[in-house]
Amino acid sequence: MTEEELKKMQKDVRKKKRIATEMASEVHDLVEDRLWSDYDKLVELSQKTAAACVAWAEASKALEQVEA
Fold it and tell me: Angle at which helices 3-29 and 42-67 pack, to 10 degrees?
């Protein structure tokens, strides 16, 4: 793997982690501030957050294998 490909993978992992973190923040805000008015959005938002976390975990694992 070239240095450029490795940097691209690292950037992808960081991006996916940022997205997962932003989604988790949205869940937090909903629960803390709008639960009683927006509770119906919680399941969908939680599923999207979980999917973002899985995407990050898979990308992170692939990067670890390449770096090993």
Answer: 160
Query: What is 3-67's CATH number, 1.10.390, 3.40.50, 1.10.287, 1.10.155?
Result: 1.10.287
| Domain boundaries, given as residue ranges, for the chain | 3-67
Torsions phi, psi of 2, nearest 5? -80, 165
Is the pTM higher than 0.70? yes
**Taking CA 39 as the corner, what is the angle to CA 33 and CA 42, rounded to the nearest 5 degrees?**
95
Looking at the predicted structure, is the pLDDT value of residue 1 above 90?
A: no
How does pLDDT run across 6-30, given as a tens digit for each residue?
999 999 999 999 999 999 999 999 9
Provide φ and ψ at 7, rounded to 5°. -65, -35
